[in-house]
């Protein structure tokens, strides 16, 4: 089921469609009649006031989004106490497991769409969780309020040709499977939204350019993977389902993630920048990513592409000096590329090369980052850095 899909068969998305996706205009929702269908069939219809990509100031019911004390915009459009049922692929991973915990804590129902229900059960245990294996994903999405698609073979590992194929095929395959499952549901039992992961690798790499959601895609391998991944997700819009694609930056989380891979090398080499130090790191704290996913589920203003990156990307040398300050280590000896290549092979490109990505549309839609500053984010993760 998770084998690579034939994107061509499904009708490759044209350049125009890719641009529409970036602007948040799907072929379905471009028409006002389709928009009104969505407004009437969505359980969130009462808050379908703002057009896509306008900063949501107030709901049609007059509820203005209050800001929490730490500056994170709360879920804007979900009526107070209204519970969602959310189906999630990749729920067992670094991001998914935290999302499950937050949704469960808030009283929402969670359905875990996994390759292996037995293994997923051993990783996630919250009251009321339901587990669905690949043959059962259609049942898993039917009747759900929304679907979050996070599945994919890990990237920051040693790449082989086989693994590169799997990195792409796992994402396109899982996304196609989830889109097919959504489309197979009867219209009145179909989820209203698909929040689908992509990555900032979409833009390619550069030490000088700044990318926003409207920027064109790059030419390298990861850009190609992201395009195919997003194209597979785009298929859901023909069924009148709102699509929100999140181009995710390097996720900083207590369990490690990319940072966890960098730390041992950083420590061996007395805390200098990895590689040239000039490469950009567009990062996001996992708490912000999870909050953004929750907002994307419940707020119809999130339609199209959004960069899931903190508004202050940093160069690797700045990240390492912030890390050095927190760890009480100097940060001036560069870590040679060969050390990382030895550890990660070609997969080291995830930290040796980067791009400066701004969350332009994400902030315009009203999202307020809890962690904008790399120092604050790293200080929050300090307990695991020692
Ligand atoms: N973490 C980052 O820094 C970062 C940055 C940019 C983009 N992203 C993207 O965001 C998504 C979530 O990231 P994450 O860090 O939480 O990922 P993760 O920890 O690697 O977890 C991804 C999940 O995908 C499923 N999976 C793993 N290998 C698979 C394969 N070969 N085929 C199909 N499914 C597979 C697994 O779920 P089951 O075993 O339950 O099926 C796994 O728990 C990923 O798609 C990732 O590419 C992450």
From TrEMBL:
Pfam families: DUF1731 (PF08338), Epimerase (PF01370). It comes from the Eukaryota. Residues 1-34 are annotated as: Disordered. Transmembrane segments: none annotated. InterPro entries: DUF1731, Epimerase_deHydtase, NAD(P)-bd_dom_sf, SDR39U1. Residues 22-34 have a biased composition (Low complexity). Residues 335-381 form the DUF1731 domain. Coiled coil: none annotated. Gene3D superfamilies: NAD(P)-binding Rossmann-like Domain (3.40.50.720). Residues 86-301 form the NAD-dependent epimerase/dehydratase domain. This is Uncharacterized protein. It comes from Edaphochlamys debaryana. The lineage of its organism: Eukaryota, Viridiplantae, Chlorophyta, core chlorophytes, Chlorophyceae.
């Amino acid at each position: 089921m998770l084998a690579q899909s034939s994107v061509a068969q499904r009708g490759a998305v044209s350049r125009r469609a890719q641009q529409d996706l970036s602007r948040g205009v799907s072929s379905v929702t471009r028409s006002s009649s389709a928009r009104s269908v969505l407004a009437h069939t969505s359980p969130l219809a009462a808050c379908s006031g703002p057009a896509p990509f306008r900063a949501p100031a107030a709901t049609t019911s007059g509820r203005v989004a209050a800001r929490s004390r730490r500056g994170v915009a709360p879920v804007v459009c979900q009526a107070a106490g209204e519970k969602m049922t959310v189906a999630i692929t990749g729920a067992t991973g670094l991001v998914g497991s935290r999302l499950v915990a937050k949704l469960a804590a808030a009283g929402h129902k969670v359905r875990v769409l996994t390759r292996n229900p037995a293994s997923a059960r051993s990783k996630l245990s919250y009251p009321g969780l339901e587990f669905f294996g690949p043959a059962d994903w259609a049942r898993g999405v039917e009747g759900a309020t929304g679907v979050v698609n996070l599945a994919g073979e890990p990237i920051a590992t040693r790449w082989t040709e086989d693994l590169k194929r799997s990195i792409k095929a796992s994402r396109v395959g899982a996304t196609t499977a989830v889109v097919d499952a959504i489309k197979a549901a009867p219209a009145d039992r179909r989820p209203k939204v698909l929040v689908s992961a992509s990555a900032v690798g979409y833009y390619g790499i550069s030490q000088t350019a700044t990318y926003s959601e409207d920027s064109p895609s790059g030419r390298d391998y990861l850009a190609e993977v992201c395009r195919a991944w997003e194209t597979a997700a785009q298929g859901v819009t023909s069924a009148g389902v709102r699509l929100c694609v999140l181009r995710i930056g390097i996720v900083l989380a207590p369990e490690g993630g990319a940072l966890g891979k960098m730390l041992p090398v950083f420590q061996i080499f007395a805390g200098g920048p990895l590689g040239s130090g000039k490469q950009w790191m567009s990062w996001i704290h996992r708490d912000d990513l999870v909050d953004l996913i929750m907002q994307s589920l419940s707020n119809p203003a999130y339609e199209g592409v959004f960069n899931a990156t903190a508004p202050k990307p940093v160069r690797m040398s700045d990240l390492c000096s912030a890390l050095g300050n927190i760890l009480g280590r100097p940060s001036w000896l560069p870590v040679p590329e060969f050390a990382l290549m030895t550890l990660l092979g070609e997969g080291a490109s995830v930290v040796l090369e980067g791009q400066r990505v701004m969350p332009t549309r994400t902030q315009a839609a009203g999202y307020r980052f809890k962690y904008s500053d790399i120092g604050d984010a790293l200080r929050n993760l300090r307990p695991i850095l020692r």
